[in-house]
């Protein structure tokens, strides 16, 4: 018997697949991949709900409640690390639910998706860590060749060396250590597991936060500064931040005939001839932005001060606090910058400029370390509890062995 509902859903899905790229071509942000994924997810959810109704069950409400919890938390305040945890909880519950639905229906589409998922998980378990090591060493070589040998550029190399040492020692530890000492050594892998989960949650919300779509009603665009070349020239990484702001500036000007002010934020470093914001202003002037639409903040030395001092300028310029503002920075720095904006009670979300792929692993590691340090007390407490638990188990094992 022909199932007309499935045919209709399939046709609607295919129409969306071909329509979305054409629709995005008319937008400032022409990236269509996120919307294709969103469209597939929407159609798939409708299809799953249809399967449930055929069984006269409503178990789909369980993962749906986790999705609604995430959406409520995210749209109430996007700049929270807990949003990454909530989204990943939804994924775990959702995958478990789909597994149970597969057992109850033996649906061909679910079987194919489950097969692909199992293959991916098998490969991750089989070669995932070793593939990660190869990638980290390769990335470290590329970054050092293109960006230099500073400590900030060596993070992927240091992580690769650390993981290599851990794998070697973990392989031989059970042979050379007594059982109680192996339990003590277990503090390290458990702590690594904890930080892996924290990093995955951070990475999840960082990726989700990339898809901000600010309305064309902004009064200000803050451009976050970074270092200058030879103390006076805007480097490519900073140039992309400015160009992202200019892109939004032109789009809002075209859509509303009411352009926002571009606020360049960055002070003068010890090794710089001029303030970063002044070099950024000159860059924007060369790109055709009128001088009256550019503001400068010349005192900040870090991202927190960028947000704090920029807020003061915007309040003075606007004559109050009821303004609309966004900020631009590189995509890897976007979420942490949002956390700093939240810290100073600045209602502003960010839009991210693209960064070369080879630079991203090192950059995200640097961002993660900075965020861990922002909440170091919490992480020290959890790692301390892990250590106390393993020490307790090691003591029990030691006394049990000594009595035999």
From TrEMBL:
Give the transmembrane region(s).
Answer: 6-23, 35-51, 57-75, 82-103, 109-138, 150-169, 181-203, 380-400
Residues in the signal sequence? none
The answer to whether keyword Membrane applies is: yes
Please state every residue range assigned to the domain named DUF218. Answer: 219-368
Keywords in alphabetical order? Membrane, Transmembrane, Transmembrane helix
Q: Which Pfam families match?
A: DUF218
Q: Which domain of life is it from?
A: Bacteria
GO annotations of cellular component type: plasma membrane
Q: Name one GO biological process term.
A: Gram-negative-bacterium-type cell wall biogenesis
Q: Which PANTHER family match?
A: INNER MEMBRANE PROTEIN, PROBABLE PERMEASE, MEMBRANE PROTEIN
Q: Protein name, please?
A: DUF218 domain-containing protein
**Lineage summary:** Bacteria, Bacillati, Bacillota, Bacilli, Lactobacillales
């Amino acid at each position: 018997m022909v199932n007309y509902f499935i045919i209709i859903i399939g046709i609607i899905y295919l129409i969306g697949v071909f329509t979305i790229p054409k629709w995005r071509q008319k937008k400032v942000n022409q990236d269509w991949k996120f919307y294709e994924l969103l469209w597939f997810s929407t159609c798939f959810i409708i299809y799953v709900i249809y399967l449930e109704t055929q069984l006269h069950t409503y178990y789909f409400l369980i993962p749906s409640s986790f999705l609604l919890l995430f959406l409520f938390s995210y749209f109430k305040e996007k700049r929270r690390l807990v949003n990454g945890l909530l989204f990943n909880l939804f994924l775990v519950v959702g995958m478990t639910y789909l597994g149970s639905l597969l057992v109850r229906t033996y649906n061909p589409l679910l079987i194919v998706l489950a097969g692909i998922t199992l293959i991916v998980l098998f490969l991750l378990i089989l070669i995932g860590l070793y593939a990660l090591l190869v990638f980290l060493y390769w990335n470290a070589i590329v970054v050092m060749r293109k960006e230099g040998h500073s400590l900030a550029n060596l993070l992927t190399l240091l992580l690769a060396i650390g993981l290599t040492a851990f794998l070697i020692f973990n392989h031989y530890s059970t042979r050379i250590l007594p059982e109680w000492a192996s339990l003590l050594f277990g503090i390290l892998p458990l702590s690594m597991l904890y930080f892996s989960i924290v990093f995955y949650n951070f990475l999840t919300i960082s990726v989700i936060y990339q898809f901000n779509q600010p309305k064309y009603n902004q009064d200000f665009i803050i451009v976050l500064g970074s270092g200058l070349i030879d103390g006076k020239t805007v480097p490519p990484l900073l140039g992309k931040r400015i160009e992202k702001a200019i892109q939004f500036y032109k789009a809002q000007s075209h859509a509303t005939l009411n352009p926002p002010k571009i606020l360049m934020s960055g002070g003068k470093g010890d090794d710089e001839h001029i303030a970063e914001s002044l070099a950024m202003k000159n860059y924007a002037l060369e790109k055709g932005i009128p001088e009256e639409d550019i503001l400068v903040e010349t005192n900040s030395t870090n991202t927190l001060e960028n947000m704090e001092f920029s807020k003061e300028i915007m309040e003075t310029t606007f004559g109050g606090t009821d303004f609309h503002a966004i900020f631009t920075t590189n995509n890897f720095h976007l979420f942490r910058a949002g956390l700093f904006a939240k810290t100073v009670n600045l209602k502003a979300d960010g839009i991210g400029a693209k960064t070369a792929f080879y630079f991203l692993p090192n950059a995200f590691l640097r961002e993660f370390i900075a965020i861990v340090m922002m909440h170091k007390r919490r992480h020290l407490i959890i790692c301390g509890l892990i250590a106390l638990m393993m020490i307790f188990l090691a003591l029990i094992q030691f006394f049990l062995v000594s009595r035999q």
